[in-house]
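Lecture notes, part 5. Sequence design as translation. It can be helpful to think of inverse folding as translation between two languages: the language of shapes and the language of residues. The source text, in C-alpha cells, appears below.
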C-alpha cells in the first residue's frame, strides 16, 4: 500500500495522457479506480471489482465518482487486480532458458553454476537464440541435443510447441507497488524476475499491461521442477503495478512487444545491480502466449499473464562464483517508460504482511456496501 505523491512518482511520464485501472483502499473498503486525464475516479458504482470493470470496457469516466487528481488522492494503493487468475509464462527468453538448465544441472547449488554456465553457453547458447519454438528446425535441434546428452525439460518448453504456463499466485494474493515482497526464509539462491504482464478479459482479449515481479527461488526449483509451486507461490511473492495501463491511442500491444525493461537492485550494504531487457528478444509473441493459456481453459474473471523474463542475475554479490541472491532490505525497481516503475522491498515471506483478505472477505465487504449487482 502507499499514499499519494510517492505513488504518483512511479507512474510513466505521460500518465496524464493515458488511461489506467487500479485499486485503492478507501475507508469503506477496496475500490476499483479508473485514472483518466490525471483524475482518479471511483468506479465501484459501475462495477464493484476490477475484474467486472474490465468486462465493461470501454469505460466512461463520467459514470464514476471523481476523487480528484491522482497525485493528491489520500488513499492506500493496492495491487491493481483482484479476481483475475494470476498466470505466468516461463523460459520465454534464451538467457533465462539457459539459466534454468544451469539450475537443473547444478541441482540448486549456486557454487556449481559458474562452471556449468560456461559449458552450457558454449554448446547450446547460439542454437537456442536462433531457433523458432515449435519449428522443424527446433525439433531437429532437440534430436541433436538428446544425442549429446544435453536435453532438458526447460529446453522442451523453450523450443518445443508448448509454452510453459503456470499459476503463480492465488486470486487476491498479489501485492502492489511500494509493498514488501517475500522470499522463503530457507532459500539461499533467489532473485527477482522483472516482467511485463498482460491483463486479459474473460473473452481472451488483452486489454492492457503492467509490470510484475515473479519472485523466483533458484535453489528450490533447481532441485526439481516438481517443486515449482514451492519456489513460486509464497506469501507476498508476486507483485504487480503500479497500475494497469489500458490499450488506447497512446499505448498498444506493439508497445509491449517493443518494451525496454530496466532492473535496479539496491542492497542495504551498498550493493547495486543493474540490468536491461528488451521484449524484442522474447521467443514467443505475447498474443501467442495468451492463446496458449486459453487453448483448453476458460477464465470467466479474466487473468493476468506474466510474459517471462530475460533476467537471471549472475553478478557475484558475496563469494566469487556464487552469483546473486537477495538479502532482506533489498529495494527492487523494475521500470519501463510506458508503464512506469514497480518498486518493492525484500523481506522473508514469514515477515511479510500476512494475506488475510480472500474472496469471501471481499464479497462480505462489497455486500455490506450495497455494491453487489450494481450496474452503470
Amino acid at each position: 500500500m502507499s499514499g499519494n505523491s510517492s505513488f504518483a512518482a512511479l507512474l510513466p511520464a505521460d500518465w496524464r495522457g493515458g488511461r489506467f485501472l487500479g485499486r485503492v483502499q478507501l475507508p469503506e473498503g477496496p475500490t476499483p479506480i479508473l485514472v483518466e486525464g490525471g483524475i482518479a475516479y471511483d468506479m465501484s458504482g459501475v462495477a464493484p471489482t476490477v475484474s467486472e470493470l474490465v468486462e465493461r470496457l470501454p469505460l466512461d469516466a463520467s459514470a464514476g465518482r471523481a476523487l480528484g487528481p491522482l497525485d493528491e488522492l489520500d488513499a492506500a494503493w493496492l495491487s491493481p487486480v483482484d479476481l483475475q487468475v494470476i498466470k505466468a509464462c516461463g523460459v520465454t527468453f534464451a538467457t533465462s532458458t539457459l539459466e534454468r538448465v544451469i539450475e537443473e544441472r547444478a541441482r540448486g547449488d549456486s557454487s556449481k553454476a559458474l562452471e556449468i554456465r560456461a559449458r552450457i553457453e558454449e554448446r547450446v547458447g547460439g542454437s537456442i537464440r536462433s531457433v523458432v519454438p515449435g519449428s522443424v528446425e527446433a525439433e531437429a535441434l532437440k534430436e541433436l541435443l538428446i544425442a549429446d546428452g544435453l536435453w532438458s525439460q526447460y529446453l522442451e518448453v523453450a523450443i518445443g510447441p508448448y509454452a510453459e504456463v503456470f499459476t503463480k499466485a492465488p486470486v487476491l494474493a498479489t501485492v502492489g507497488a511500494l509493498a514488501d515482497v517475500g522470499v522463503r526464509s530457507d532459500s539461499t539462491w533467489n532473485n527477482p524476475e522483472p516482467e511485463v504482464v498482460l491483463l486479459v478479459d474473460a473473452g481472451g482479449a488483452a486489454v492492457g499491461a503492467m509490470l510484475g515481479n515473479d519472485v523466483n527461488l533458484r535453489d528450490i526449483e533447481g532441485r526439481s521442477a516438481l517443486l515449482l509451486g514451492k519456489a513460486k507461490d509464497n506469501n507476498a511473492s508476486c507483485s504487480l503495478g503500479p497500475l494497469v495501463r489500458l490499450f488506447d491511442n497512446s499505448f498498444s500491444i506493439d508497445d509491449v512487444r517493443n518494451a525496454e525493461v530496466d532492473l535496479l537492485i539496491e542492497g542495504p550494504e551498498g550493493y547495486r545491480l543493474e540490468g536491461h531487457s528488451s521484449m524484442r528478444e522474447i521467443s514467443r509473441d505475447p498474443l501467442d502466449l495468451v492463446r496458449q493459456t486459453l487453448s483448453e481453459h476458460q477464465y470467466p474473471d479474466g487473468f493476468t499473464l506474466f510474459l517471462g523474463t530475460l533476467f537471471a542475475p549472475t553478478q557475484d554479490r558475496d563469494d566469487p562464483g556464487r552469483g546473486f541472491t537477495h538479502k532482506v532490505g533489498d529495494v527492487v525497481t523494475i521500470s519501463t517508460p510506458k508503464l512506469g516503475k514497480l518498486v518493492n522491498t525484500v523481506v522473508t515471506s514469514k515477515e511479510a504482511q500476512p494475506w488475510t483478505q480472500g474472496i469471501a472477505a471481499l464479497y462480505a465487504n462489497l455486500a455490506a456496501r450495497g455494491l453487489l449487482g450494481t450496474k452503470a
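The translated text above is only one of many valid answers, since several sequences can fold into similar shapes. The two ends are 28 Å apart (CA to CA).
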